[in-house]
Amino acid sequence: xxxxxxxxxxxxxxxxxxxxxxxxxxxxxxxxxxxxxxxxxxxxxxxxxxxxxxxxxxxxxxxxxxxxxxxxxxxxxxxxxxxxxxxxxxxxxxxxxxxxxxxxxxxxxxxxxxxxxxxxxxxxxxxxxxxxxxxxxxxxxxxxxxxxxxxxxxxxxxxxxxxxxxxxxxxxxxxxx
Length: 177
Hints:
Order of helices and strands: HEEEEHHEHEH
Structural class: alpha/beta
Strand content: 15-25%
Oligomer: single chain
């Protein structure tokens, strides 16, 4: 498969079962933990459980508009895709991330012994019992998890846009007063 096939597959088959309740921090780095569940291609009938987080923060250098930095998504290893190629690929399809740094850290990749539906229920119940409002629960294909994680992050960025604008306007008013 090529990058276009992976992208289309992720768009069609990614499901955000449970989004993060709170938005992104407007003026500080935000950690977006996630649990990504996929049907195992190796152990049929089992579920691959990928736990990680994406830290969204301002880059050390001021970047031009529509120049996000993606780290830790394994695009180079999986698709031999450089970061600038990924950004261009997304831009051509009308997908623009703010010029921030998106650093993915995968903490564990495990196997849940049971079908995907049971894994979703199990992890959803666990998040609810723990009252965890920060961790997203995503169902996605195993071979294009990177794009599914980007879709999750993109949705979180969109959800935060209105609040971010309001916070920036309030900060600007405070400065002017």
